[in-house]
Amino acid sequence: MTNQENILKSDFPAKILFKAWMEDKEGGVAPEIRLIALTHYRNHEKGEYVAYLANEIPDEFSKELDSLTLFNPKETNEYFTNRRVAQLNVDSMMHTKITNEIIRNQKGLLEYMALIHGAINLILEDSNNDKKWLQDVQFLFHNLEYIRQNSDKIPEIVIQSMCYTADMLLCSWIEKLLKIACLDKRKELPQKGTKKKQQDKDKLTLGWWLNEKEEAAVEILGETHMKNLQKFLAKYNGVGFNYRNSLAHWDNINKEMLKPIFVSKMLWLFTDVLNTVFVYFLEKRKKLKHQSEQ
Q1: How far is it, in rounded angstroms, from Cα 49 to Cα 165?
Q2: Sequence ranges of the domains in the chain
Q3: What is the spatial distance between Cα 150 and Cα 164, in angstroms, rounded to a whole number?
Q4: Which of 252 and 179 is assigned the larger pLDDT?
């Protein structure tokens, strides 16, 4: 095993990043920035936040990887080449570990859930949606807190059931967030060919909101971000983990998906979508404020 692999498989980088994230609060970093920084970075040249999952693979990432058989052929296709899959695996591993560090720490979990609550509150307010959802945030918090306190103390089957509940909750929230943002964005887009979609919006599920045919989703996420989310939550051209359907239909579930570390992965994916939608509404607020001041 190389030194690089040892570093990636250790908890050392995640622990350092978690400590830095906690110290940001003491340094006066705004709450919304602390939340967004978990999944996005600031592109100062463009003056916008960009999701790490929206990054294209840099040219210097050896293209020779694409000619090697590193992964099961079922995990790759013309888009998800060896180098893309390798980069996604690294990103997923590191962000999952950072998220895991946060929710394993009592103070970290409390702060994380408070930030999530604040972001969802703004999204619901600006999209004129019912705020009953905020009660569910408490439900997730108590679920995660129970897992944090008891994962080493009670029968495995109990922890598995708690993890499954959290996984399903996070999947449903990802779908809800994308639906809220896309329906809002549709108001700004030409309505050609969308009459049926508007009528059937309550029947549309996650697969649709991560589909290139949904123009609003492409506008909000961008094609790269959308495809990478499809790789985890659904499938893109036959390739993907299909977490959402596996969990929803209890199909191809394995023990790894019923462990606290997998909950951390789902929480990272949820936070990625939450922050993308959060940034969308924050930018919309700025635009409206600017227009009102002119």
Answers
A1: 31
A2: 3-293
A3: 15
A4: 179
